[in-house]
Amino acid sequence: MSDPTAPAKRINLRTPDVMARVQEQVEEHYRSSLVETIRANGGIFHAGKTTVRLAKQFGFCYGVERAIDLAYAAAKVFSDRRIFLLGEIIHNPDVNGQMEAMGIRYLPARPTSSQLMDLTSDDVVIVPAFGAEVATVASVKERGCQIVDTTCGDVMSVWKRVRQNASEQVTSIIHGKASHEETRATASRALGTDAKGHYLIVLDLKQTREVCRFIVEGGDPEAFMARFRGATSEGFDPALHLQRIGVANQTTMLRSETEAIQRQLREAIAQRDGGSAENFRYFDTICGATQERQDALFQLLNEQLDLLLVVGGYNSSNTTHLVEIGAEKLPTWFVRNATCLVSAQEIRHFDLHTKTEQTSHDWLPVSGDLRIGITAGASCPNNLIEDTIRRVLELRGDSLA
Q1: Domain at 62-150, CATH from 3.40.50.11270, 3.50.50.60, 3.30.2390.10, 2.60.40.10
Q2: What's the whole-model pTM score?
């Protein structure tokens, strides 16, 4: 068994020969000449009485492209070995299905002890773009596996901040979803190298107001902990660990909400401490690609549109926020891919309130002029966007020619 304290073995997967083959395969699976043509035409496409407008920024970001490239490279370089992926490479079922078709096997993001014991030093384990928890990575290292780490650089920037917080006895308040792989990975690093740091995860402004109230007024620690069960570090005591705080975030959250959360927490600390915000710190750790896609959607919504389609995986956080933005202004449908567009009368779509796929009717007018906006999250490939455009035109009776 290898030494768990030893650095992971490093093998350069991105050699020119390997990457040439990877790029050929990735383009075959995910490229769209139609989307590229529309982009070159300013994001506007006319067919018959249908006008399609694409957001200026959408689809795969650099971090996602890098993760997919590394996974494909691993499949080529280690073709004679078992390859496992911790959870999903990204939050898109079509992409994850493609990984499985390539022979990559799946492990849960939090493998059981028996699943870990099944791993051997001959196996390869891919860490997804979201990263993985410290304990999980350590357990994989103990088995002697070759690790291929595809963690996004923006995520690692957040880790640097929360580690710094822990080293200075500052509690990290993490704006994110407690069950999300990235947030769990960040929280594990907020404990610090000596595992004595602390964190608290807040989902939204409502939960933030509860934290602010405790900071300013105090309260019942047991009731507080019951409210935030599963979202705090072990041994967390709100009476002790909210004295000095630093705000971090899951990189794919809505920027405006993260900024409102940090502003409210800063004001609460200042109110408690007689106007001083010395015990508060904040770093902007929203992913640049996430922000670009949100900004591009706001810009798209300034156009005259009749409806919006958002394409992506239902468990994709950054895609969910695009849906929230669109729904504030016009009819917005969150679809996984073109198969969700059953007919002009029927559409399967994800409902953010019920957290389930729903079926709605009479969603697409089939006559008259129609202006459709389309965007996609950072984990959605262009080929799925093309399929969606083609399906809309087919249902409308309009031709691409």
Answers
A1: 3.40.50.11270
A2: 0.89
